[in-house]
Amino acid sequence: MASLSSQPSKKGIRSPAGNTANNNSSQQGNRGSSSGQTVKFARRTSSGRYVSLSREDLDISGELSGDYMNYTVQIPSTPDNQPMDTSVAVKAEEQYVSNSLFTGGFNSVTRAHLMDKVIDSEVSHPQMAGAKGSSCAMPACDGKVMRDERGNDVIPCECRFKICRDCYMDAQKETGLCPGCKELYKVGDYEDEIPNFSSGALPLPPPGKGGDHNNMTMMKRNQNGDFDHNRWLFETQGTYGYGNAFWPQDDMYGDDGDEGFPGGILENMDKPWKPLSREQPISNAIISPYRWLWGMSIVCEIWFAFSWILDIIPKLSPINRSTDLEVLRDKFDMPSPSNPTGKSDLPGIDLFVSTADPDKEPPLVTANTILSILSVDYPVEKVACYISDDGGALLTFEAMAEAASFADLWVPFCRKHNIEPRNPETYFSLKVDPTKNKSRTDFVKDRRKMKREYDEFKVRINGLPDSIRRRSDAFNAREEMKMLKHMRESASGDPMEPIKVPKATWMADGTHWPGTWSSPAAEHSKGDHAGILQVMLKPPSPDPLMGGADDKMIDFTDVDIRLPMFVYVSREKRPGYDHNKKAGAMNALVRASAVLSNGPFILNLDCDHYFYNCKAIKEGMCFMMDRGGENICYIQFPQRFEGIDPSDRYANRNTVFFDGNMRALDGVQGPVYVGTGCMFRRFALYGFDPPDSNISEQKKEAETLPLRATDFDPDLDFNLLPKRFGNSTMLAESIPIAEFQGRPLADHPAVKYGRPPGALRVPREPLDATTVAEAVSVISCWYEDKTEWGDRVGWIYGSVTEDVVTGYRMHNRGWRSVYCITKRDAFRGSAPINLTDRLHQVLRWATGSVEIFFSRNNAFLGTRRLKILQRLAYLNVGIYPFTSIFLIVYCFLPALSLFSGYFIVQTLDIAFLIYLLLITICLVLLAILEVKWSGIELEEWWRNEQFWLISGTSAHFAAVMQGLLKVIAGIEISFTLTSKSAGDDVDDIYADLYLVKWTSLMIPPIVIAMTNIIAMAFAFIRTIYSTVPQWSKFVGGAFFSFWVLAHLYPFAKGLMGRRRKTPTIVFVWSGLIAITISLLWIAISPPKTTGTADGAGGGFQFP
């Protein structure tokens, strides 16, 4: 036994550390004289002896870490500590288990039935039941030799004597000798591989510090021949049990004190503990595209949800309104005991029309608008019309004079025959029977004469440019002759020197035009000219003036031929002054009209918007003069447009906004001001808060006398009026008068803030030179210096969308507004049907919204008087352009999904499809319900959705960039007027629709369209040539790309033009974009090489 135990194992002999291990085992009793060899690991063999191993004996495959401490775990030998080879015993046991059939159950003994055969066929795999080795060599034994995991025979002795498991176990119990060679079984020959001790797990410690380490199995048996565990534990002072760990003592394995295990702890430089399982991270190349797609879609969805909430919440309480014109007539216009003559008690109104450039805003269009205003169905003496010519052009001035002259026939004709509409161009272009609902017998004759007069009027208007040019050339030539004659008579200067006479623009009376000349000169250019004011039609008499049969070419008997007051105004402009564009022109009209007519209400129109309903003013007065009307700051009418193509390709009618959003806001605090078709209360424009009904109770004379301005604003001292409104005394005195005349009638106890009936029947005072001179003074360029005009008073400056800001300031002070939708459209105008002009128009609106967001007019900073839903509506006005950033990302997501092969969701399972379907159905139902209560057609709603994406990816994004540049870098933004002229093809009223004018705003939509088209083609080809085509993933990505392209369809049609007249620049940009996208994607995700080593690849590879 001793010789066997000291014999080195074959594994140890084969390994370089075998010698060292053997020497160490023989020198355990003399550890003090160790050779200094470093021993850090030890193992216990199956025979019970210990072998020390050095670091070089171990296969170090991992990094060493000091974070793990080494310890020893006792893993004992077999329970009876048999001297037999454990590997052979284990293999025998495995052989027995694998070839046995175990049976058992409840209340029955578990039995093992050894099976020689499991199936009829031959079993070849060694792990399968029934696989056995060779026959046993013992006499009278039919057993099979044991086999290892590879199917090889297990021979426990070097003599190669084949023996089965049962015979081997009997030999071990009886003599321990091999039946073949009669020698003891050599245990070391069949030891297992040297275990890995890098994890710090060590075998049992040696039973003693010295002496014989032979196997004590035979000495520790009891009387029955079984191993005595208690005796073994007592004599060896060992421990027994799985999982018993202890720290080895110093030098217990024969190491020196310097490099042993100090304190029983292994060095920190040993290998760290290795886990049985670990997390395998997914490659960034796989997960990153999905993370990016998912992250971008989540961010975009959050923003879209936020903007959707801002858009939908203010629509919670939409309302409809109606008026009763008969009640208005009975209350204000019918004769009564106190009014036997039947004079009107309605308040006066001033109508403003603004124009700036006769080249882009044709004078004929403006003249027709003026004619529709002058013929409005409202008391003549209560109406005053003002035209603001911000360009100071003589062409506009003479066109307005021609319009005033033609009104002498047109206005009585409209009154006589009740003409609708009262725009002559529109009326004579109607495709309906003109005699319908006409009762007079002379209507056809009068209409024929009127049509002839209007044709001549158009000829005169259209011929004004040439007429002015010829006249100016003639007068300039005359001035040159005078100058030459004077030089010859005085004999001064060189007669050969060219005469320098300014190329002036001459008026019809032979004087210089004080405004802008055709050839700009000092003090005669668009930004440098004097203020001009011309009363073209003086105020009418208070009493009706009936026409006769011989007065005009048309019989106007019993027809009132009076005309409203009409004034031409061109404010002064000088270099160095900020004139604030349209807002400055409107404020100049407010001051001039306050001095001349002082109507308590103001209605402003663009030059291309005219009265389509002659009773529109009375419709608005029904709200202003009703109970509670004193708190209304303005009446906003919807905008309706003519000349729009039948399909409304670019959503020019904007019915979703005017019939949906605006009507919904009418149920909150009122609609926003949209720049035209709006009737203002003059007192609200002056920056005052809405009146308090308690004032009338405190002031006994409040119902009969006008209050002073200081009565409405306690912080406004009378001496400080010039600081707010300027130095004009007439303007300051007109403020309380306008406030008083704008009150409703105090004819009911519920009206606590009204005026007595009959107070407005007093005739207006005639104009004098002093009053007109004061009006010229208030339109000078210096008048607004050091005042609150544009800051608190009038139209607000600082934004290209001054209309929205002006309305917001009024709502912020507590006023409310009303949306007036009439059965017959109140006003109609023109809109740009050309794609480029439409995009530039939307760009101006969006830029103004961005300016509002970054200014103190942001609704976040509003007062408590601004209702919460109204605040959300104004927040949406300032925030909606920023949606373009997320919209552009969303338009690229389907293409990125198709390029990368990763969808927004990893799998298109049924849960995602149901979720997507539910959201889509919810949005569609919401849109249908909104369409139902607003009266919008589905086609109009779809056009609005299409143009929302077109403008969101082009104009809105550019507006955000320009707004940021203005806020960060202070770069001002300038816009040009939208041209209102027709196209080259005069026979087609939709000629402008097919004009393609290149603009940089078209680049983003083109990039989006090309990217999605290329992505669909790329994904389609990749799916076809893939090994396992994933058509569901392709269809999912292609559907969203197609959805983007469907929204861009009107934009594509706009680029195509008509009759294949697409500009070359469109094809150039498309090609460049396609090439750029392809190269960019190849650079980001280069194709993988699938060819063989010699370069001959197989299959298709997308370049």
UniProtKB/TrEMBL annotation:
GO terms for cellular component: Golgi membrane. The chain crosses the membrane at residues 873-904, 910-929, 1006-1025, 1031-1052, 1064-1084. It holds the Pfam family zf-RING_4. Mn(2+) binds at K582, D606. The active site is at D390, D803. Keywords: Cell wall biogenesis/degradation, Glycosyltransferase, Golgi apparatus, Membrane, Transferase, Transmembrane, Transmembrane helix. It comes from the Eukaryota. UDP-alpha-D-glucose binds at S354, K360, E361, D390, K581. GO terms for molecular function: cellulose synthase (UDP-forming) activity. It is a multi-pass membrane protein. Residues 22-37 have a biased composition (Low complexity). It is found in: Golgi apparatus membrane. One of its GO terms (biological process) is cellulose biosynthetic process. Residues 1-48 are annotated as: Disordered. The keyword Membrane applies. Its main location: Golgi. Belongs to the glycosyltransferase 2 family. Plant cellulose synthase-like D subfamily. Thought to be a Golgi-localized beta-glycan synthase that polymerize the backbones of noncellulosic polysaccharides (hemicelluloses) of plant cell wall. This is Cellulose synthase-like protein D4. It comes from Salix dunnii.
